[in-house]
Structures are given as C-alpha cells and as structure tokens.
C-alpha cells in the first residue's frame, strides 16, 4: 500500500499557486495582479504557467484585452477559494488558545445594533477577555453575508431573512421598532396612541434605503397604505439620534435605543410596527475559535435576558475558558 501525500515544500508551492491564481482571476489582468501580490509580472506569469501545466488544463483565456477564466478555470476557482479558506482557518486554529488569553474575533453588525449592543455585549466581552483583539465593523446585511462567505468575518449580527445558502442564522431575540421624538417635539408628552393619519404626518429622519431597517420600515408603510413623510435620510444612527434630540423631527428606531437614551421619547401607535427577528450569522462549517464560542455564549446570555444589560459584576470570572 502506497501512501500518497504532499511534502511541506509542495504544500507551500500549491498555496502560492492558489493565491496567484485567485489574484489574476479577481483583477482580470496580470499587471494589476502582480502589483497586488508585490511580485514581478514575469514571475506571476511563470507561476500561473506552472500551475496550468501541473493541472494539465488552461485556466485563463489570454486572447482578449482582459484575462478571463476558461471553463476549467471557473471550475477550479470554486475549489481554490474553499481550499484557501480552509488553510487560513487552519492557521487560525494553530494559533488559537482555549484559555482566551489571546486571539482575534472579527465581528460585524447592521447599524441599529451598534447603538445598543456595543456597550453591554462588546464591553462585557472585553471585560472578561481583554486579551482577545476584537475587530468590529458596521455594514449592511448583504455585505456581512458576502464577507462571511469569503471567511473575512467570524460572526455577524443582523435580521432575517438571510439570503445566502452558505450562511447559518441562529435566532437571538425579537426587536421592536418605535416611533420616537426628542423633548422639543410637540408630541413628546403625548400619552395616547397616534392614529395612522397622525403617524403619516410626522416629518421623519431615517436611514437610507441601503439598510435593512429602512427596507423594513418601508414595507410597514406599504402594508398600512400610507406614504411616509421622510425629510432627511442618512447612513448613521448617531446622526439620526442627534437630529431627533435637537429638532422637531421624528424617527423610527429600535425600542432599546429609546430605553438607553432618556432624551428620546417613544410614542405609541394604534397599529404597532411589526417586530423583527435578530439573528447571529456564521458561515456554514466555519472553524469556531474559542473567541467565537465565548462571544456566542455571551450574546446568548444577553438575548435570553430580553436585551437587559449585564450587571457590573458578572458570574463568569475574567478569562474563564468556554467549554
């Protein structure tokens, strides 16, 4: 029986070939790919030729002004991407430590979450595991799904529905959206519920249409058969909150934001805005580091408390391992 495998040098060459191949495929040009890789163009061309010879297939069509993948190249790219992701995950696994004294967690959230999850959850995570480096980004759901699939993120927090079959979504909690105003608004002291007619007349500052929250709000207005009076659109929650605090504009944001900010006044509606499901996103079959498992557990604790902030002293001691 003959054992077939790769030597260390062969693995290194294969990894280099994969990186070079994917760079050319992405750039569609050998010169630009060489610049990205910080190698000379002749070196890159030679490496791609070696790869094609080893596979006994032409991967690129070089006949046009733009380099394109052949059918064989398209087929091989799928496996090359997966192989590179697995190799990079393996590298992280080697450097991962179960005692959570060091490591990295790459996390992304859609905008509304950063306003009320960052302080209690991310703050508590740092308190427990100060040796973990957290890379936190705010972006749209589509971008989160794409980066998770490319193994450029470990976790994402967003809303259903999830569109990619490569992503798993674990339910966290139901989020309620509220109409809210600042203390200068004439309805700030209103006790009763607003009718649909009153609701429709309110001048609004909202997130723009790129964000899931705005899309959700637009659907609600369509269901109610009313036209929103949107006078300002922006791409940041902080800008919305500041405008509402110091103007007579209203907005629609998660109820949790109003609970955390006493300068915002939630208003009741005759037809409450439908709740939506918050979910934790991960790439299917992705490597789950100790840091990922620790943050997932912490987020689950927060979600089971219906969004209540963590106490000043937690039951789990700092740097406790996650089983």
Question: How many angstroms separate the termini?
Answer: 40 Å
> Strand arrangement, largest sheet?
4-3-5-12-6
Radius of gyration: 25 Å
DSSP strand count: 12
Give the SSE order as H and E letters.
HHHEEHEHHEHEEEHEHEHEHEEH
Q: Tell me the domain tally.
A: 3
Number of helical segments with 4 or more residues? 12
Which outline best applies? Answer: elongated
Mean pLDDT across the residues is 84
Query: Beta-sheet strand percentage?
Result: 15-25%
Instruction: Give the name of the CATH architecture of the largest domain.
Output: 3-Layer(aba) Sandwich
CATH class of the largest domain, named Alpha Beta
Structural class call reads alpha/beta
Major beta-sheet overview: 5 strands, mixed
Task: Please give the share of residues in helix.
Answer: 40-55%
Q: Which runs of at least 5 residues are low in confidence (pLDDT < 50)?
A: 306-323
Topology-level CATH name of the largest domain: D-Maltodextrin-Binding Protein, domain 2
Give a short synopsis of this structure.
44% of the residues lie in helices and 20% in strands. The chain has 323 residues and is α/β, with parallel strands linked by helices.
Outline the structure in words:
The protein has helices at residues 8-27, 30-37, 41-55, 71-95, 111-114, 118-128, 141-149, 196-201, 212-224, 237-245, 255-260, 290-304, and strands at residues 60-61, 68-69, 103-109, 132-138, 155-159, 167-175, 177-182, 203-207, 229-234, 250-254, 264-267, 276-283. With 323 residues, the protein is of the alpha/beta class. It folds into 3 domains: 8-95, Winged helix-like DNA-binding domain superfamily/Winged helix DNA-binding domain (Arc Repressor Mutant, subunit A, Orthogonal Bundle); 103-174 and 277-304, D-Maltodextrin-Binding Protein, domain 2, CATH 3.40.190.290; 177-274, 3-Layer(aba) Sandwich (D-Maltodextrin-Binding Protein, domain 2), CATH 3.40.190.290. Strands 4-3-5-12-6 form a 5-stranded mixed sheet, with helices on both faces. Strands 10-7-11 form a 3-stranded antiparallel sheet. Helix 2 crosses helix 3 (41-55) and helix 6 crosses helix 12. The longest helix is centred in the N-terminal third of the chain and has 25 residues, at 71-95.
């Amino acid at each position: 029986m003959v054992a077939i495998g790769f030597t260390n040098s062969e693995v290194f060459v294969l990894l280099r070939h994969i990186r070079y191949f994917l760079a050319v495929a992405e750039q569609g040009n050998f010169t630009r790919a060489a610049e990205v890789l910080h190698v000379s163009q002749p070196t890159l061309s030679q490496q791609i030729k070696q790869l094609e010879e080893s596979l006994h297939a032409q991967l690129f069509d070089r006949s046009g002004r733009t380099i394109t993948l052949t059918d064989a190249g398209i087929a091989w790219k799928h496996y090359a991407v997966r192989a590179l992701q697995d190799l990079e995950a393996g590298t992280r696994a080697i450097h991962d430590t179960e005692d959570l004294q060091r490591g990295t967690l790459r996390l992304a959230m859609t905008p509304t979450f950063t306003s009320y999850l960052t302080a209690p959850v991310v703050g508590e995570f740092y308190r427990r595991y100060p040796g973990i480096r957290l890379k936190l980004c705010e972006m749209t759901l589509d971008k989160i799904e794409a980066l998770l699939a490319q193994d450029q993120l470990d976790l994402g927090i967003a809303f259903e529905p999830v569109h990619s079959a490569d992503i798993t979504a674990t339910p966290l909690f139901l989020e309620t959206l509220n109409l809210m105003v600042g203390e200068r608004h004439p309805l700030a002291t209103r006790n009763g519920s607003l009718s649909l007619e009153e609701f429709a007349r309110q001048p609004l500052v909202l997130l723009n249409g790129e964000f899931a929250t705005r899309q959700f709000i637009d659907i609600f207005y369509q269901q109610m058969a009313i036209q929103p009076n949107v006078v300002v659109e922006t791409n940041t929650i902080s800008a919305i909150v500041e405008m509402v605090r110091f103007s007579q504009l209203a907005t629609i944001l998660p109820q949790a934001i109003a609970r955390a900010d006493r300068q915002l006044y939630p208003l009741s509606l005759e037809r409450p805005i439908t709740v939506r499901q918050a979910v934790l996103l991960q790439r299917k079959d992705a490597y789950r580091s100790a840091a990922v498992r620790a943050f997932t557990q912490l987020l689950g604790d927060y979600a089971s408390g219906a969004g209540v902030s963590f106490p000043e002293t937690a039951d789990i001691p700092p740097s406790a391992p996650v089983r």
